[in-house]
Amino acid sequence: MEIITVVLSSLLLLISPVGFVLDQVAEDSIRSRLVGAESLQVRVDNGSPVQLLQGQVNRVRIAGRGIMPTSDLRIEVAELETDPIDLEFNSLRNGEVVLDEALQGALRLVLTEADLNAYLASDAVAERLSRLQIGGLNPAQARERDRYRINNPSVQFLPDDRLKISLELADLVQGGALQIDAESGLSVSAGDRLVLIEPTLSVNGSPAPQQLVKTLLGSVNERLSLQRLERRGVTARVIDFSSGPDGLELAMWVRVDPSVTAPDAASAELDALE
Predict the structure, then answer these.
(1) Is the separation of the CB atoms in 163 and 156 below 8 Å?
(2) pLDDT tens for residues 168-197?
(3) Helix (H, G, I), strand (E, B) or coil at 160
(4) Model pTM score
């Protein structure tokens, strides 16, 4: 979600209190919030000067390639096109950026296998995996979970919207590690979640029992749900999804409620999207 955070927060800074918006100013604002960008184009359809002084923009279009919202994550393609943007005028006069109406737009992302694997090998992902909880475990099993650590995660995009995830499950008590390989298809359900299709799991090359597959992967579908963003004022729906050897492509519709940019709340809410 990092790229959504960067793009949305940058959009909210496009209009200065004096009123005039230029494409280059908008591009510079976004670049300043990125670690890097191989290419970035911004087009602002700004309407009349009166509209700008009132905090209104007709449309913003952003197209980037080789976008790095963080030092660990590279995105091959990131494109965003918004509906009209309406900022609260009195706040704008005071130099504050607050949405007067909800911000809506379409977002398209493309991730390559190489970029995703580089991200999975980062310290940020290692720290998150150390806190990962496996659903379906009883209290006794949960205590056992603390003895294991996930190492060397990687992903491989396969034909027909399938992917393979490989990792090592290290035993911190007895030593040694298990090689875990999971393969699954991916599908979109109700526009708000990615669903695993016919998942399989192998341990050290041997197929795992189906019950173990359900136990280990039982909470994954819930983690892939976009509904968890709604309590933070962000609604997202998947418009299109596909994956294959060339990479993963995701198109989404996103709506940001004005409450996200309320005074003293905007920065905290945007950080929570990561």
Answers:
(1) yes
(2) 988 888 888 889 999 999 888 888 878 888
(3) coil
(4) 0.77
